[in-house]
Amino acid sequence: MPEIAVLALPNAAGASLFGVLEIFSTANRILHSTGRQSHLFNTVLCSIDGEAVTSSMATRLEVTASVKEINRPDLIYIAPPAISSSTELLAQQSGWGPILDWLRACHEGVTLATHCSGSFVLANAGLLQGHRATTAWWLCDIMAQQYPDITVDRNALIVRSGRYLTAGGSSAYQDAALALIRALSDDSTARLTAKYWMADLNRLDQSAFRLESNRGGEALDLLKRARYWIKQHLASEISIADMAEALDTTPRSLLRHLRKEADCSPQTLIQSMRVARSKVLLETTDLAVSDIAQRCGYTDESAFRRVFQRHCGLSPHNYRTRFNAKYHCTRQTP
Fold first, then answer.
1. Cβ 189 vs Cβ 195: under 8 Å
2. pLDDT at 210 (0 to 100)
3. What local confidence, expressed as pLDDT, does residue 43 receive?
4. Where in 67-224 does DSSP place strands (E)?
5. Furthest-apart CA pair in the chain: how many Å?
6. Distances from the Cα of 12 to the Cαs of 15, 78, 118, 326, in angstroms?
7. pLDDT of residue 44
8. pLDDT, position 213
9. What's the pLDDT at 7?
10. Ranges of residues in the chain whose predicted pLDDT is under 50
11. Is the Cα dihedral 151, 169, 260, 253 positive or negative?
12. How far is Cα 160 from Cα 104, in angstroms, rounded to an integer?
C-alpha cells in the first residue's frame, strides 16, 4: 500500500491541495471497486510541524501529523503556496527555512513531487541541481535565472528527473497526480481516474497557455521601447537595422542589450510577440488563419503555421478549437 504524505505549506493553494487529495481518493474508490484493496493509497495530510495551516483562502486547515512523524513514505507531495507575482514568491521563500532543512535531511529514497511554485521549494533545498524541472510557464524564466544549474523545461507540463517530479501551473496538480497514480499503481487506474475527473491523461505541454511576458524586466528602458516599437509594426516586415535606428542604437548594441535584459535575440522577441498577437486573434475573432498571419507580419501562411506549431505545440486550427468559445460545440435544449 503506497504511503503518501501531502505536505501543506503556509498559504497553500486550496484548490490544488484538496484537488490532489481528492484525485488519490478517487483512485482509491476505483481500486476498491475492482477488488484491489492492497493497492489503496494511504494519504496523510501533513504540515512541517504538525500544526494547522492557513490556506490561500484564509481557511484554517487541520492536519493529521507532522511530516517528521511519517515513517519513510513512498511519496511526499508538496502542495505549494498560492502566488501571483515574483514579489510574492520571494516573500514566501523567506519562510521556507525549516522545510528546506527537513527536505535535505530526509529526502533520500523518497519520491518528491510538486507543481507551480512548489518547484522553487525543491530548488531552494538544492535538490534539483543537475536535474531537469519545470514550473508554471510564467515562472520558468525566473527559475532559470535563479538556478542556472537546473535545466528548466519551459514547455513541458510534467518533468520526471530521478526521484523528482515537477509540474506546471495551478491546474497541473491534476496532471501530476495522475502521473503519480500511473507510476505507483498502473495505467488502468490512472486512465479510469482521469475519466472520472474528465482530465486529459496525455496532456504534456503547457506552451499553448503561455502569454507574452515582460521577460527580464520591462522597466529596463531599451527593452520597453523595443517592445513598444515592435508592437506598432507587427504587421510589417521588420529589419533589425530599422529597429535599431528607431531606438537610436546600433544593431550590435541592440543585440547585446536584449541578450542581457531579456535573454533573447531581436528576431526571437519579434517572433514571440507575433505569436502572442496571433493567439489573441485566434481566441477572439473569426478571421481566417491567412488573414491572421498577415496581420502578424507573415506573408507566407505556411511559415506562420510552422512557427505557431513550434511555439504553442498546436496548429492554429487546433488552438482556435480549444480556446475560442465560439468553436466549442454547445448542445442546446429545443
1. no
2. 80
3. 93
4. 75-79, 111-115, 132-133, 151-152, 158-161, 164-167
5. 73
6. 9, 9, 10, 35
7. 93
8. 54
9. 93
10. 214-219, 330-334
11. positive
12. 19
CA distances from 298 to 246, 288, 289 (A): 21, 13, 11
Residue 45, C-beta contacts closer than 8 angstroms, at least 6 positions apart: 6, 8, 21, 61, 63, 64
Contacts of 292 (CB under 8 A, 6+ apart): 278, 281, 282, 285, 304, 316
- The answer to whether the beta carbons of residues 52 and 63 sit under 8 Å apart is yes
Q: What confidence score (pLDDT) does residue 334 get?
A: 39
**pLDDT value of residue 212:** 63
Cα first-last separation, the chain: 50
Helix or strand (DSSP H, E) at 260: helix 251-262
Q: Looking at residue 215, what is its pLDDT? A: 46
What pLDDT is recorded for position 57?
80
Amino acid at residue number 159: V
Helix (H) or strand (E) holding 7: strand 3-8
| Grid cell digits, residue 311 | 511555439
- C-alpha cell at position 76: 511526499
Query: CA gyration radius for the chain?
Result: 23
Report the phi/psi class of residue 72: left, alpha or beta, with left for phi > 0 and alpha for psi in -120 to 50.
left
Which residue is it, cell 484564509? 58
Give yes or no for a contact between 22 and 30, defined as CB atoms under 8 angstroms apart: no
Cell numbers describing residue 285: 475573432
Single-letter amino acid, residue 208: A
Kindly tell me the number of DSSP H helices and DSSP E strands found in the chain: 14, 11
Write the CB contacts of 75 (distance below 8 Å, at least 6 apart in sequence).
Answer: 2, 3, 4, 5, 110, 111, 112, 113, 180, 184
The strand pair at 60-61 and 53-54 is best described as: antiparallel
